[in-house]
């Protein structure tokens, strides 16, 4: 296949995509129709096991659809080489740290050692707020490892999260995907994390997966996966107005995490 760079794509469309893992007789994704538009931000929500991670793996070309097709500006991605398509996605997982490398090396992981990379890495660290601790020595990680990331170590959980953000800025791919970047954080720290990536969310095509809804109001579109299908898709206001699954899940969660203000605000904005 030919090379493809998505630096100026308009949209990626999933057209009636189904996906099943080998040796399983049911699909994990069924009849997915979805459009990802350049420059917009998306949040994929849904219960555990509903198919969120599988969806981003199919979208980013890691798995091929069992049925249906994926089109970039109308061109089937099977026309492109797999690696060149995948290279357009920066996927940031929550547990990306490869200790005992230094902070710097963790961010640059997988990239060539190059002056230009180092300069870009510092810029990314400035943006994310990680610049202050970028020079921490590898032995800090050893300590961290022994203490199982407990309090009192040199690098806090919040700082590790900032590294995740730095890495996303640094990767600078046309599409940034974050799969549960805050799974280990409490709601307060999680909120801080998302405040840190507001710029990233607003400035590029960004897809996030979360089983929490902290970012729901930041993104352009929320995609609700339920029972392997897209159940709802729309902006926060649209989904709160439509009284469907999103509103049900959001309200439950708001009560659980005591996000009363958020819900009241949402209620007001729907009237
Ligand atoms: P989510 O991200 O919403 O938690 P996943 O996409 O990880 O959901 O998983 C969807 C379903 O696919 C689950 O039932 C899960 O058990 C199954 N699954 C995930 N990965 C594999 C795999 N490698 N092989 C077989 N089944 C899998």
Annotation keywords:
single chain, 6-stranded mixed beta sheet, 271 residues, disordered C terminus, 2 domains, binds adenosine-5'-diphosphate, alpha/beta, 4-stranded antiparallel beta sheet, Rossmann fold, ABC transporter ATP-binding protein
Structural notes for this entry:
- The chain is α/β, with parallel strands linked by helices.
- It folds into two domains: 186 residues, P-loop containing nucleotide triphosphate hydrolases (Rossmann fold, 3-Layer(aba) Sandwich); 76 residues, no CATH class.
- 37% of the residues lie in helices and 21% in strands.
- The protein contains eleven helices and ten strands.
- The strands form two sheets. The chain has a six-stranded mixed sheet, with helices on both faces. Strands 2-1-4-5 form a four-stranded antiparallel sheet, covered by helices on one side.
- A hairpin with a 2-residue loop joins strand 4 and strand 5.
- It is globular and about 50 Å long.
- The site of adenosine-5'-diphosphate has 11 residues, from helix 1.
- It is found in: Cell membrane.
- It comes from Paenibacillus rhizoplanae.
- This is ABC transporter ATP-binding protein.
């Amino acid at each position: 296949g030919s090379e493809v760079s998505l630096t100026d794509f308009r949209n990626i469309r999933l057209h009636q995509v189904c996906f099943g893992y080998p040796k399983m007789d049911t699909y994990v994704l069924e009849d997915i129709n979805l459009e990802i538009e350049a420059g917009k931000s998306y949040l994929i929500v849904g219960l555990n096991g509903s198919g969120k991670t599988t969806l981003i793996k199919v979208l980013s070309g890691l798995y091929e659809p069992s049925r249906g097709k994926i089109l970039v500006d109308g061109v089937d991605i099977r026309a492109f080489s797999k690696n060149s398509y995948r290279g357009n996605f920066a996927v940031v997982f929550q547990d990306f740290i490869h200790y005992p490398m230094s902070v710097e090396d963790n961010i640059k992981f997988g990239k060539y050692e190059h002056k230009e990379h180092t300069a870009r890495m510092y810029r990314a660290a400035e943006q994310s707020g990680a610049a202050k601790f970028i020079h921490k020595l590898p032995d800090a990680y050893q300590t961290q490892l022994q203490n199982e990331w407990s309090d009192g170590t040199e690098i806090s959980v919040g700082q590790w999260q900032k590294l995740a953000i730095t890495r996303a800025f640094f990767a600078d791919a046309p599409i940034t995907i974050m799969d549960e970047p805050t799974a280990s954080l409490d709601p307060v720290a999680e909120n801080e994390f998302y405040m840190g990536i507001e710029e990233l969310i607003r400035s590029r095509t960004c897809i996030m997966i979360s089983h929490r809804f902290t970012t729901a109001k930041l993104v352009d579109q929320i995609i609700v996966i339920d029972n392997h299908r897209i159940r709802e898709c729309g902006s926060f206001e649209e989904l709160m107005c439509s009284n469907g699954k999103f509103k049900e899940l959001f309200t439950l969660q708001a009560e659980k995490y005591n996000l009363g203000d958020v819900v009241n605000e949402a209620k007001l904005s729907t009237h």
